[in-house]
Amino acid sequence: MPAECAANPLQRSLADAIIRMVPMDELRILLACGAKVNEQVTQGLRPLHYAVWQNNEPAVQLLLVRNADINAIDEVGYSALHLAAEHGYNDLAKQLLDAGCKVDYREPTDDPYPRTTLCDEPLRLALRNRHYEVARLLLERGADPNKRYFFGSEINLATDVESLELLLKFGANTEARDRSGITPLMRAVRTNGSIDAVLLLLQYGADVNAMTDARNDYRTVLHYAVLSGNASLVNLLIKQGARVDIPAPLPEPDRPSPLDLAVLRGDPTLVRILLENGANVNRCSPIIGSPLHVACADNIPHRVEIMKVRFV
């Protein structure tokens, strides 16, 4: 916590006493002598911020009884609940929520990727730090599982299966696009991540044939699975209904198909899987030609083996 002196020296003394976790009677004496429950200490921080930061439950209770402003935020937008969520203090988070604090602090906006100088929501802080109990508590108390940030919604920012599952259970949108136009399922397969994340998204109805826009070459989920080189993922997606060919017509028909990408990777296994599931070997792009044209390029690994697969 910042150490600058407050305008009222007793505020600094109160904050220091809270951090040192002195007996409650000492805090009561400071309050009786003129320290204020809701006066700033420094940079917008109130005594309640210090009590939560220090995980000082008795001090939190005392300040709440003395009518501390439970939703007060500091200069960067942190409330007491933000601190509890960031540090994983589940009991304190529950205490604050039971006392009536807000669960979301950003104002609603129609901007799909809003810019803001404020900090993230308590839910985002809990998930980022993998404090799943706190995250579940916040969701149970009404935290928005589809809150939007500059780089995407909550589900686009989730980095682990546990966070993903929590968000999905509480209504996160499986088709939310991040700032680059990628869905959670695309992200899960392109990073060659956990098959559990892919299965979870499919279980909650993620579109196995979702497609990006021109920024990402109109790629489908299957494109990203092929690029990951994971044959198991490719097989799984096809079994779940993924189309092996790009639906026509596209605004720009020269974009590569999943089969083109498998050939470019020099991966006979993926080529075989796609062909066995009906990929069009004669689809021709005005720029790169047919998959056979691609396979004949000098820099394609295993090109002889790939061409043999084509003609079996």
Automatic annotation (TrEMBL):
InterPro entries: Ankyrin_rpt, Ankyrin_rpt-contain_sf
Superkingdom of the organism of origin: Eukaryota
ANK-type repeats, residues: 43-75, 76-108, 122-150, 180-213, 217-249, 254-286
Keyword set, alphabetical order: ANK repeat, Repeat
Pfam families: Ank, Ank_2
Database matches in SMART domains: ANK
Descriptive protein name: Ankyrin-2
